[in-house]
């Protein structure tokens, strides 16, 4: 049970870090297409996060 909680917390932390990275890239003027290439997400997914 604890391993499951730790795994979930780790995944959530990774997700939050990725969101911060995406927002920083966008704030610094990086085109959505480039952000998509680096993150592996679609431009539509990125738009939803911004």
**Total number of beta strands:** 0
Whole-Å distance between the termini? 34 Å
Number of helices: 3
SSE string:
HHH
Radius of gyration: 13 Å
Q: Structural class of the secondary structure composition?
A: mainly alpha
Report the helical percentage. Answer: over 70%
Low-pLDDT windows of residues: none
Q: Kindly estimate the percentage of residues that lie in beta strands according to DSSP.
A: under 5%
Q: In one word, what is the shape? A: elongated
Mean pLDDT: 93
Please give the largest β-sheet.
Answer: none
What does this structure look like?
The chain starts with a helix and ends with a helix. It is mainly alpha-helical. The protein is built from three helices and no strands.
Q: SSE layout and pairings?
A:
Layout: H1 2-27, H2 32-39, H3 43-49
Protein name: Histidine kinase
Keywords: Kinase, Transferase
Organism: Bacillus cereus
Brief summary of the model shown:
The protein has 50 residues and is an all-alpha fold.
Q: Which characteristics define this entry?
A:
single chain, 50 residues, mainly alpha, 3 helices, 0% strand, elongated
